[in-house]
Write a structure and sequence with these properties.
Blueprint: H1 2-20, H2 25-45, H3 66-97
Helix pairs in contact: 1-2, 2-3
Length: 116
């Protein structure tokens, strides 16, 4: 189970960093979202991964830690709100600038027809 979680976190971090390094705005937003998912999975796994364990009930020593679950739930809500805000900001930047490049400048490629 830990290997599966670690692989998922590694894959999400890799994809997130790859998308953050893109030159357009929307892949950067998706990359930040994937990184937040990776952090959420990491926080969730810090609460000792356990299957079929009850929440804190009674005096049993076998229970799931509720703190990482509460942190992840809060992070999901905040991440969703921030993603919605950044998407609206990216749409506004696209409307104002006419392109969706991160630095606001269109990449001009040299083609052979334009050269004399």
């Amino acid at each position: 189970m830990e290997l599966l979680y670690a692989s998922c976190v590694g894959l999400l971090v890799t994809c997130g960093v790859f998308l953050i390094l893109r030159a357009r705005t929307f892949p950067v937003v998706l990359g930040l979202t994937m990184l937040s998912y990776a952090v959420n999975l990491f926080l969730f796994s810090s609460g000792r991964l356990a299957l079929n364990k009850a929440a804190v009930l009674g005096y049993s020593s076998e229970y799931a830690d509720p703190l990482p679950q509460a942190l992840v739930l809060t992070a999901i809500v905040i991440g969703f709100a921030m993603t919605a805000f950044v998407v609206i900001l990216a749409i506004r930047g696209r409307a104002d600038l006419g392109n969706d490049h991160v630095n606001g400048q269109e990449i001009v490629k040299n083609n052979k027809k334009g050269k004399a």
